[in-house]
Amino acid sequence: MCGIAGFIGAGDAEDLRRMMQALRHRGPDASGEARDEPHGVWLGHQRLEVIDREGGEQPMWSADRRVVLIFNGEIYDAAALRKDLENRGRVFRTHHSDTEVLIHAYLEWGPDFVERLNGMWAFALWDRAARRLLLSRDRFGQKPLYWTQRPGCFAFASELTALTRHSHVAAEVSPAALRKYFAYGFVPAPCSLVEGVRKLPGGCNLSLQLPQASPRIQRWWEFRIEPEPQHAALPELCDALRERLDRAVARRLVADVPLGVFLSGGIDSATIAHFAAQRLDPGALRTFSMGFEEASFDETAHAERAARHVGSRHHAAMCSMERAREILPDLARRLDEPLGDVSLLPTHLLCSAARREVTVALGGDGGDELFAGYDPFRALALAEAYQRLVPRPVHQAIRLLAARLPTAHRNMSLDFRVKRTLLGLSQRPALWNPIWMSPLAPRELAEFLAEPVDAEDVYSEAIAAWESCPADNSVDRTLQYFTRVYLQDDILTKIDRASMLCALEVRSPFLDIELVDFVRRLPHPYKLQRGVTKRLLRSAMQARLPREILTRAKKGFGVPVGAWIRDGAAPFDAFPPLGTGACAQFLAAKLAEHRAGRADHRLFLYAHWLLARWGAGEPAAER
């Protein structure tokens, strides 16, 4: 893993130095620069050495000095592509660098070569002969890439913080992105929290052709649910899924550095660990889990059971909630863009613990999105019945009645789930999922910002994902929302930031394109049937994992931030308002209700606290 940054036009060596300094945590092993001064091109790279440690230095030039590349990610089918390119007459200088594979693939097939890649990436390629800059991001947006065009300057970077270190990029908050942040709990692509800065969405290329210097974005891939009639029997589908899982894990076990697997004791991570153990020598697999003293948030016993079953050398780290609170302010300061997902903290602690032993870790990200693993999937049938049978004028009364349920701050407590579910049911189905998980519903958002809020605009990404699904059922539409929007802009953003802050590379076998193309074509009853989530995955692993793992209810990876805020525990003993007037009054009212136990406003209050710390503007050196 690495960090990349660069610009064309206005700027100098000091701009590039500041941008790279802000990315040093992503690639502490080496740094490099490339310039094409006649065209005003400046490129910088911070490297974490994982593949071809001796020959993979970046920026990397082609042998004829026509093309230079800076690359963040891993290409899992690089060996096969290299062989194909060699058969076509391409001569390689490195031993097995996937960076050089990208250069030769571009020279052989042009910009469309990205469609051949199986991996995760964000790269920038400057073609001197064509006078063209090409930026690309992998299908799911596993690796981040921000860009902006200012008068006389086009700039890009792996992180928002690095981009704003360029002297021509002002860090002014975008009002539109601010609304989306409090509506989703994250800022969805292509928006960013800084005015005029965009995220290149996953599955997109951006090309900048000089001298016009007008960026052109091309979408070359997009996740799409396309269920096909299945004639194969369930046992045959289980065989097909296991074969693809085995290959996906095998591709991600290739590294020149120590490697391990995250293991929570749930079915996703246990599945990855199982296939990794089959590919490695007995006892060679290292697994990692993070536990907490608070019983409702701890999974170490389940993880240790799974580790014994797969025969791994397990490392279980424990953290007190007091210690977790102490870490949170520093983590918030170093967070590149606010992300209201409280599981960022335990994820970062897990990554930090694993990094003491390994440089690469495999995780289970993507399993919930592909196989309908989240709680909202189980609520869909009830939600549809509720909208059919309960008259709309009665909805408010039911919400008021539910509000009288005692507030608990246990992990995914019953009252929290009931209240969040009812919050979305007065909206049309396309808005159910984002509102169920949002810090503020549209009416609250309008009150907080003291301005009209158009739900269609604020939730445009969720609506587009829902309405573009060709399958006319709420399960497939929800699958498409979670995979297109929530996976990219919450889950994968979280794991990228949490891991790269400690220079750990995390790989996601569930996002292998061969596996994804198989799963997205399955009818939804193979994923969710009569309230049972991940049906096909559970069936496929039935004889390979213990029953208690296969039948465990999903448990979120969180911390009791609601209780911390209620008790006024540090660092939540102070909530500076983001503004004055209505904004400050709204915050004060929500905080008072939460601390009195009359309501659970943890999602809004945590998102607000994070944004206030981000707005403090920490210097790059402290990040």
Could you describe the 3D structure shown?
With 623 residues, the chain is an alpha+beta fold. Among the domains are: 2-219, Aminohydrolase, N-terminal nucleophile (Ntn) domain (Glutamine Phosphoribosylpyrophosphate, subunit 1, domain 1, 4-Layer Sandwich); 234-372 and 490-550, 3-Layer(aba) Sandwich (Rossmann fold). 41% of the residues lie in helices and 16% in strands. It has 25 helices and 19 strands. The strands form four sheets. It has a six-stranded antiparallel beta sheet. β6 (119-127) and β7 form a beta hairpin. α10 crosses α19 and α13 packs antiparallel against α14. The chain is globular, with a radius of gyration of 24 Å. The two termini are 18 Å apart. Residues 617-623 have low confidence and may be disordered.
Q: How would you summarize what this structure contains?
A:
The chain has 623 residues and is α+β, with helices and mostly antiparallel strands.
Which SSEs are present, and which pair or pack?
Blueprint: E1 2-9, H1 13-21, E2 30-36, E3 41-47, E4 60-61, E5 67-75, H2 78-87, H3 98-109, E6 119-127, E7 132-137, E8 146-150, E9 153-157, H4 160-163, H5 175-184, E10 197-199, E11 204-209, E12 216-219, H6 234-251, E13 259-262, H7 267-279, E14 286-292, H8 300-310, E15 313-319, H9 321-334, H10 344-355, E16 360-362, H11 367-371, H12 375-389, H13 392-402, H14 414-424, H15 432-436, H16 442-449, H17 455-458, H18 460-467, H19 474-500, E17 505-507, H20 513-519, E18 528-529, E19 532-533, H21 535-540, H22 547-550, H23 561-567, H24 582-595, H25 602-614
Parallel strand pairs: 13-14, 13-16, 14-15, 16-17
Antiparallel strand pairs: 1-3, 1-9, 2-3, 4-5, 5-6, 6-7, 7-11, 8-9, 8-10, 11-12, 18-19
